[in-house]
């Protein structure tokens, strides 16, 4: 369905208002195509994510956080390759032109865009069931980029930040136990994830592989070991968790929050053991902590071990030995 005249001004008023203006954008919003320039020696990294109402979010969710998340999850994919973000395009399908919703959505979107120097260069606006698609474009050095298939036996496995907070927030929300004052920090981790863009760009020169954690550590690390034709051991006691998540683990003796809950958008990456010193130097310059959680091995599959080195059932994340 095409747009009415008033909906065209909606694009001018709310969407074509990016504060970020990049020198490598020859033509931005307003023409039939965006025209952009990739720096010499770099390759273009492209990724896309779609959020569908009723499937990825409930229609009543705060539009500011939705705008934030729609761009942040795409930036997280760039971060996982070690790419530098540059441009985004946005496809918005909405049942009606709800100006307040669009203003809020774009506010959340542009806050992230400006923080990471991303310019919105084009998109499409149509009428239909609420759905949001963002495509992100960035630059990567093809010799340094972090792929999922680069891990080798003997490599050490690390993660950025902490694991399980977003999953805990979701769990509390779904069980009606979320206290928006007491659980404010946890809820921010779910609604306003921070893509580890700087970390990814810095790690690219020393890491052998990386992935961003959108579906949970076991599943996402599973992609690395599968595509790298190897396996891994995770040391449960090393997993970086907030006090709130640690408390749940202590009370339930099960590790599903850090192991298999999604939406953390931290990076999981591997480095050769020889690069540990280099990593430590780099870690001192980063905002988020880097934690060693295990090692890559030849034997396929992922094994979790407890503090005594005994294997814990990975499927359920249940620690039989506790
Ligand atoms: P066309 O019909 O030629 O595709 P449109 O009328 O759809 O052009 O869009 C006009 C301009 O506004 C284009 O530059 C397009 O990229 C931009 N645009 C439309 N919708 C969006 C959006 N949701 N986000 C960013 N840019 C948009
Ligand atoms: Mg169009």
Architecture overview:
The protein folds into two domains: 7-140, 2-Layer Sandwich (60s Ribosomal Protein L30, Chain: A); 156-305, PurM-like C-terminal domain (Phosphoribosyl-aminoimidazole Synthetase, Chain A, domain 2). It is built from ten helices and 13 strands. By secondary structure, it is an alpha+beta fold. The chain has a seven-stranded mixed sheet, sandwiched between helices. A four-stranded mixed sheet has the order 3-6-4-5, with helices on one face. The structure holds adenosine-5'-diphosphate and magnesium ion (MG). Residues 11, 15, 29-32, 90, 92, 120, 122-125 line the site of adenosine-5'-diphosphate. The site of adenosine-5'-diphosphate (ADP) has 13 residues, from helix 1, strand 4 and strand 5.
Give a concise summary.
The protein has about 325 residues and is an alpha+beta fold.
> What is the string of helix and strand elements?
HEEEHEHEEEHHHEHEHHEHEEE
Top-tier CATH class of the largest domain: Alpha Beta
**Biggest sheet: strand arrangement:** 8-10-7-11-9-12-13
CATH topology of the largest domain: Phosphoribosyl-aminoimidazole Synthetase, Chain A, domain 2
Structural class: alpha+beta
CATH architect. name of the largest domain: Alpha-Beta Complex
The tally of beta strands, per DSSP, is 13
Instruction: Summarize the biggest pleated sheet.
Output: 7 strands, mixed
* Helix count, DSSP H or I runs of 4 or more residues: 10
Q: CATH H-level name of the largest domain... which superfamily? A: PurM-like C-terminal domain
Helix content: 25-40%
Residue-averaged pLDDT: 92
Separation, N- and C-terminal Cα atoms: 59 Å
Low-confidence stretches: 316-322
Query: Approximately what portion of the residues adopt beta-strand conformation?
Result: 15-25%
> What small-molecule ligands were found?
adenosine-5'-diphosphate, magnesium ion
Whole-angstrom Rg: 21 Å
């Amino acid at each position: 369905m095409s747009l009415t005249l008033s909906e065209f001004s909606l694009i001018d008023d709310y969407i074509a208002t990016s504060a970020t203006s990049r020198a490598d954008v020859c033509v931005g919003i307003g023409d039939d195509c965006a025209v952009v320039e990739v720096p010499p020696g770099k390759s273009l990294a492209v990724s896309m994510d779609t959020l569908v109402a009723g499937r990825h979010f409930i229609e009543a969710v705060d539009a500011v956080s939705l705008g934030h998340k729609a761009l942040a999850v795409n930036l997280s994919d760039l971060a996982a390759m070690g790419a530098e973000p540059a441009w985004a395009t946005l496809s918005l399908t909405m049942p009606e032109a709800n100006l307040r919703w669009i203003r809020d959505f774009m506010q959340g979107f542009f806050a992230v865009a400006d923080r990471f120097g991303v310019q919105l260069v084009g998109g499409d606006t149509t009428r239909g069931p609420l759905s949001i698609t963002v495509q992100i474009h960035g630059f990567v050095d093809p010799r340094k980029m972090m792929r999922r298939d680069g891990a080798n036996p003997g490599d050490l496995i690390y993660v950025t930040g902490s694991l399980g907070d977003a999953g805990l927030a979701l769990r509390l929300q779904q069980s009606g136990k979320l206290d928006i004052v007491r659980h404010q920090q946890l809820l921010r981790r779910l609604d306003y994830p921070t893509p580890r863009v700087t970390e990814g760009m810095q790690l690219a020169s020393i890491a052998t592989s990386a992935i961003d954690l959108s579906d949970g550590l076991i599943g996402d690390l599973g992609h690395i070991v599968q595509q790298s034709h190897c396996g891994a051991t995770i040391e449960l006691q090393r997993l970086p968790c907030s006090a709130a998540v640690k408390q749940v683990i202590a009370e339930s003796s099960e590790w599903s929050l850090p192991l298999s809950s999604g939406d953390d958008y931290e990076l999981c990456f591997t480095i050769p053991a020889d690069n540990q010193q280099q990593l430590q130097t780099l870690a001192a310059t980063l905002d988020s902590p880097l934690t060693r959680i295990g090692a890559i091995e030849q034997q396929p599959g992922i094994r979790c071990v407890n503090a005594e080195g005994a294997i814990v059932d990975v499927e359920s994340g249940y620690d039989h030995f506790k």
